[in-house]
Amino acid sequence: MSDIPAREARVYMQAGRRLPVTLVRGKGTRVWDDGGAEYLDFVAGIAVVALGHADPALAEVIAEQARTLVTVSNLFYTQPQVALAELLVQHSALDRVFFVNSGAEANEGAIKLARKWGGLHRNGAYEIISTHNSFHGRTMGSVSATGTARYRDPFGPPLPGFVFVDFDDVGAIEAATNERTVAVLLEPIQGEGGINVPADDYLRRVRAWCDAQHLLLILDEVQTGMGRTGTLWAYEQSGAEPDIMTSAKGLGGGVPIGAVLAKEHAAMFEPGDHGNTFGGNPLATAAGLHVLRRLTEGGVLAHARARGEQLAQRLRGLEDRHAVVRGVRGRGLLRGLELHREIAPQVVAAGLGHGVLLNAVRPDVVRMMPPLTLTAEEVDAGVDRLEAALVEAEQA
Ligand SMILES: *Cc1c(COP(=O)(O)O)cnc(C)c1O
Questions:
Q1: Which residues of 207-240 are buried (b: 16+ CB within 10 A; e: fewer)?
Q2: Which of 31, 266, 274, 302 could tie 243 with a disulfide, CB 3.0–4.6 Å?
């Protein structure tokens, strides 16, 4: 066993729990630890490593950009930033882009856009309706928008102006709307909340309510976007378009980058309103440009859809064979195996011994979000290993 966990425990802030594995290398859907053990990676950086680990073309793009120009600040124009913004606009319903470095930061931008819009177009309205069990990030603004109290409670008063309603309940949004309301903020599928898929007409009905009440619809596609749910953006499957949308996770294929996108009428930033040092730097946007091209021109989306269906089908097979399995959730390659017992952490721990990396997103839900490029054989092998872990955890 390596000495990394003991060294970490002495110097690193213990803000989260880790699995007892030190990973040193990856290739495609596989990663290796410092003892040489191999794992199928169904976590993929939490829905980040869209093209798999150490993709040769992405690695070359990053290396070439690093040799050319890493960063110059946003005091100047750069080519990759504009090219990625153009491609995002071309492949979404949004008109303008602003780059940041993470999902939380993207949501900060979305909150600022909505509040400025409310100041100018809705009599100073600033309140945002969010949902219970949502996740929007850990910075003070994004955590204030997050519907999980334990993430907010230790840190004093949250940013005011957020109210929370049940997810997948249009009536609750209607009842919570008043003259202070400026926007509704939703994940198309709640990711960290447990892979909660709403009714097919939910987003369409929320969109209609926002239109009728002159509210903005903000969709947090940080986890669901970039092909994760089978289309480039999850909203494409809903029949509703957002006024503001955030992206991050898969956007850089592993390189940190986030984006806030808005339709023209909601793109409120004027010179001096907002800014950052690293956002949209040439290194991150060159990576993002390559990933987005591969998704939109390279057939990765169709592949991910097919593998997502295969994964769901294989997981439903577990439902037939194991009474502890309650159901299969999700879309595309964002899937959850729902259990009757709260043994998801034990399944994940057992998975290490069987050579598969999984995530217990809730005590009773095992989450899978592998690279969009995984092969049919890797889907089968991953589910076989998950099944072995499930049996072991049940018997423990
Ligand atoms: C992960 C996530 C975030 C936060 O992204 P970070 O890059 O960790 O700040 C925000 N919203 C959703 C839906 C996420 O899944």
A1: bebbeeeebbbbbbbbbbbbbbbbbbbbbbbbeb
A2: 266
